[in-house]
């Protein structure tokens, strides 16, 4: 007979909570056990582990400890799960906490060179929408999902990730290597535990899932994970009240939450899954805007960028455009900057406010990737979030 397994928050921070961890490693012990078909209720902490509240200022954001990011709840041992199986995880319900926030952290985010921050928007949450005094006139509907959810990596996956990410770091790429500082769990096992020395950081997603930040993983959808470790080691955290596809400023409407999931074990099916997959129905249709404004972006860059509301100060810029070929990143950046500029001009927002709105409500979409050299990315802004 199926049962409900609950994992509750305890302690003021993740460091004092035995049900929380912030590194990924096969040796992290399970905090609970469940059978396929059981309901599992995860009480989660927000992505920055309670470092922000209603009193936090922009200066407080700049001073936050990034080593405390992503306290995850779990892991849960799923009985009978073996390497090579697939774990089908259905999101049954997400009960939001009353407080949320979106932050622009200096040095982080897609436009960190253009809009560096710091900035914070505090959100008042219920099951309908989020509102913020820092972004007046905007009401963001609830579309909650786990920003991070996954299973434990196996020993081979940890070794492979350390090798490839280490090579990337040595080549000058941006990669977060193991760091024992603030590594969790620590309360019972101490800093000498293997996950402290070689545990993977939780910022990038990998084969085992993790920080995917995919809005499609909302209530009612099923996420398929390859089982990489005996018992799977299911976990979640970093729950988002709402987010646009892209999470462009580096944070969504972040919150603590109570997440209910249900698992199905598909024997042998994990061999065909390299990265997590998602199954759903009408969920995406339910989040489509009834009215929108969209801009298109192409792989062009300007020698000296000037926002349109200051364009009268600049000479014609057509000659200063540089074209790159089939560069989706540059096309995305172009679209994002243009939708931010549109909100500044047409909705009377500051660039920081517009950047936050883009992170929590704008969907970035690939239009085409074949019409060389100019691929197209669109930024779709739902207009119903504005009161006027």
Number of helices: 6
- Helical content band: 10-25%
Strand/helix succession: EEEEEHEEEEEEHHEEEEEEHEEEHHEE
* Integer tally of domains: 2
Query: How widely separated are the two ends?
Result: 52 Å
How many β strands by DSSP? 22
Mean pLDDT equals 93
Largest sheet: 15 strands, mixed
Gross morphology is: globular
- Report the top-level CATH class of the largest domain: Mainly Beta
Here the CATH topology of the largest domain equals Jelly Rolls
**Gyration radius, rounded:** 21 Å
Task: Supply the CATH superfamily name of the largest domain.
Answer: Acetamidase/Formamidase-like domains
Q: Judging by the overall fold, what is the CATH architecture of the largest domain?
A: Sandwich
Protein name: Acetamidase/formamidase family protein
InterPro entries: FmdA_AmdA
Question: Can you describe what's shown?
Answer:
- The chain is α+β, with helices and mostly antiparallel strands and 388 residues long.
- The chain contains 6 helices and 22 strands.
- The chain has 2 domains: 4-285, Sandwich (Jelly Rolls); 292-385, Acetamidase/Formamidase-like domains (Endonuclease I-creI, Roll).
- It has helices at residues 58-62, 155-170, 194-198, 283-286, 328-346, 351-361, and strands at residues 4-7, 20-21, 23-24, 32-34, 39-44, 72-78, 86-104, 119-125, 129-131, 139-141, 145-150, 200-201, 209-210, 222-226, 232-240, 254-266, 277-279, 292-297, 300-302, 321-323, 363-368, 376-382.
- The protein has a 15-stranded mixed beta sheet that branches. Strands 18-22-21 form a 3-stranded antiparallel beta sheet. The chain has a two-stranded antiparallel ribbon with strand order 3-12.
